Amino acid sequence: TIYVEDKELEAKKQEVRTEGQKGTETTTQTYTFNAETGEATPNEAKVDVTAAVDKVVAVGTKPVVTTKELEFKTTYVEDKEMDFGKKETRTEGKKGTETTTQTYSFNAETGEVTDNEPKVEKLDAVNEVIAVGTKPVVTTKDLDFKTTYVEDKEMDFGKKETRTEGKKGTEKTTQTYIFNAETGEVKADEPKVESTDTVDEVIVVGTKPTVTTKDLDFKVERRKNENMKKGTEKVVRKGQKGLETTTQTYKFDAKTGEVTLNCFRYRI
């Protein structure tokens, strides 16, 4: 039996390529007889040979190649310049491969096949890199100032004067975030609030009383006097003009700055 290696045949599989056939060797021994002496002597033997046919067995040593995929990992990185809630793939993930090639050694005498040390080739995976936005969110809102009214009894009625200009304040809220590098999760941190105080507007409102005067003409009263000569007149008491003084006061509402009239005060 002859063993031959077949590198295209499945490893360790045997396949008979030629059936073996036994040969034959036929030997014919003849003799020569001597009639006088009665002796027989052997002639040269005749040998007929039919050759044997060797059995040929193919033995497979085809290498076995196995490939398995190597999963990539996903890595998360923080980007403080990218808006919160936004994600961006910076590096596309690619699977790697691990290829194992099993080869064999062949013994032509016995047909035995033994395993060689497997050869392993690796193509590393490319990890996926995802950037996660954690840019702080800053919001600002105006804080309206209040208007305060104060009364000034030395300033003319109807006049208003701004003593302090009102200024709006601001409230600035900065929302930062906590980043988990393992999961890519982002959670809101405690917001930071910074305030600029308002400056209240102060308006002075005049409530100085308004005083007006006017003269009151006197009347001339003529009385009959029997003791006086007819057609003559004598001033018994000189007339004197009167005076009407009007004092207008005002009622001040500190909440609205409104000024309303009180009742007139007369003095004659």
Distance between the termini: 158 Å
Amount of helix: under 10%
Structural shape = rod-shaped
Q: How would a crystallographer describe the biggest sheet?
A: 3 strands, mixed
Going by helix content, strand content and strand pairing, the class is: mainly beta
Gyration radius, in Å: 66 Å
Low-confidence stretches: none
Give the beta-strand count: 26
Sheet-strand content, in percent, reads over 45%
Order of helices and strands: EEEEEEEEEEEEEEEEEEEEEEEEEE
| Spatial strand arrangement across the major sheet | 1-7-2
What is the averaged pLDDT score? 93
| Count of runs of 4 or more consecutive helical residues | 0
Mind explaining what this structure looks like?
The chain is mainly beta. The relative contact order is 0.14. The strands form ten sheets. Strands 1-7-2 form a three-stranded mixed sheet, with no helix packed on it. The chain has a three-stranded antiparallel sheet with strand order 8-11-14, with no helix packed on it. Helices cover 0% and strands 60% of the residues. It has no helices and 26 strands.
